[in-house]
Amino acid sequence: MPELSAQQMEIAQAFNSQGSETLAGRMGIKIIEASAQRVVGTMPVDGNTQPYGILHGGASCVLAESLGSLGSALQAGPGRFTVGIEINATHHRAARSGLVTGVATLAHGGRTMSTFDIVITDEDGKRVCTARLSCLHRDAVPGESRPS
């Protein structure tokens, strides 16, 4: 794993300190690496399963969107925010235990939009899901700390 810069460490720590008040926090998503070109994170299978005891497809989508949205925010830059406008996912195989790892890689980074390809694998390195997320970049409204 590459060494993280001070900014990347700060971003990962801020994301990872989210508690149960956020969806990513409730699902146990942790960021390992974060830059405008690549975001890596993990999520436990336990607690994120469907009735058959396998990883829920929606959980894979939440992991993909969390990683891609963080990358998009970094790509958009300071004073801007991003909103997801499209996600698609193909579920290849079941994961029953352990951690899954998602790697979001920038496919397109423009002034108004970014797209990330996200590959989610199990602990054996087998592909569980392939997703793509596109986000729209917006200018922050002056005086507001977050978009409404």
Q: What is the number of beta strands?
A: 6
N to C succession of SSEs: HHEEHEEEE
Portion of residues in beta strands equals 35-45%
Question: What strand order characterises the main sheet?
Answer: 1-2-4-5-6-3
- What is the gyration radius calculated from CA atoms? 15 Å
Structural class: alpha+beta
CATH topology-level fold name: Thiol Ester Dehydrase, Chain A
Mean pLDDT: 90
CATH architecture grouping: Roll
> What is the CATH class designation?
Alpha Beta
What is the number of helices? 3
The residue ranges in which pLDDT falls below 50 over 5 or more consecutive positions are none
Overall number of structural domains: 1
N- and C-termini, Cα separation = 36 Å
Largest sheet: 6 strands, antiparallel
Share of helical residues: 10-25%
CATH superfamily: Hotdog Thioesterase
From the spread of the alpha carbons, the general shape counts as globular
Explain this structure:
This protein has 148 residues and is an alpha+beta fold. The protein has one domain (6-139): Thiol Ester Dehydrase, Chain A (Roll). Helices cover 24% and strands 39% of the residues. It has three helices and six strands, in the order ααββαββββ. It has helices at residues 6-16, 23-27, 57-76, and strands at residues 30-34, 38-44, 80-91, 99-109, 113-121, 127-139. It has a six-stranded antiparallel sheet. The longest helix has 20 residues, at 57-76.
